[in-house]
Design a protein that fits this description.
4 helices, about 210 residues, 5-stranded mixed beta sheet
Length: about 210
């Protein structure tokens, strides 16, 4: 990732979709870093905004239930199939925990010039700070996950791991957002998640004030 400084900025727009190989490699690196308890680094002068703690809690609960169920299933299946079942359980656990590690180690980044909204396993969106008109805490729901169109508003997009969102950005002018399919959305509103919405809003407002004074 490039540092956010005047000579080497993160470009605005939609970050490209990763290939399966790249996605898997990122997941394994994040999983290894999480297991090693390595701190999450914020490049350059960026400030990090954690997100998706609620989604991780749900996933951890489901994983725990699946693990208990797998133990019961293992006791019922024939011995010849138990190694195969064990491999399946391990792979499922790696993907589940790896998914959580990807969201935990990919916080949103607020820099001098850009707001980098990240979803961990899904795509990201980079918005110039000087395009942000207002930011506020606002709980809502937008069906789907990752970067997606809002079905209720033609000029709104959401960028979050789950359907729930807790933050809303109002943009000064229409900002082109290219989705996976269809024409770009000229977005005037972007919703996303933050674990502490009020604190996240203040961090973004501080960046907005700095951009105005620059």
């Amino acid at each position: 990732m490039r540092h956010d400084d005047p000579g080497n900025r993160i470009p605005a727009g939609v970050m490209p979709r990763r290939s399966a190989v790249t996605w898997s490699g990122t997941m394994l690196r994040d999983l290894a870093a999480w297991l090693a308890r390595k701190p999450v680094a914020s490049p350059g002068a960026h400030r990090a905004i954690p997100h998706s703690a609620d989604s991780r809690s749900v996933i951890w609960t489901i994983a725990a239930v699946d693990l208990v169920t797998s133990i019961a299933v293992d006791a019922m299946i024939p011995h010849a199939y138990r190694p195969l079942h064990l491999v399946w359980v391990i792979l499922s656990l790696v993907v589940t925990v790896g998914f959580c590690a990807m969201t935990l180690r990919a916080p949103h980044l607020v820099g001098e010039h850009t707001l980098h909204l990240r979803t961990g396993p899904f795509r990201a969106l980079v918005i110039p700070i000087n395009q942000i008109q207002a930011v506020r805490a606002a709980h809502g729901m937008t069906q789907g996950h990752g970067l997606r169109r809002s079905p209720d508003h033609d000029d709104a997009v959401a960028c979050s791991v789950s359907s729930a969102t807790t933050m809303t950005l109002e943009l000064a002018e229409p900002f082109p957002v290219q989705l996976r399919k269809g024409e770009p959305v000229m977005a005037r509103r972007v919703t996303f998640t933050a674990d502490r919405p009020a604190a996240a809003a203040e961090v973004i407002r501080a960046a907005m004030r700095g951009s105005t004074q620059a």
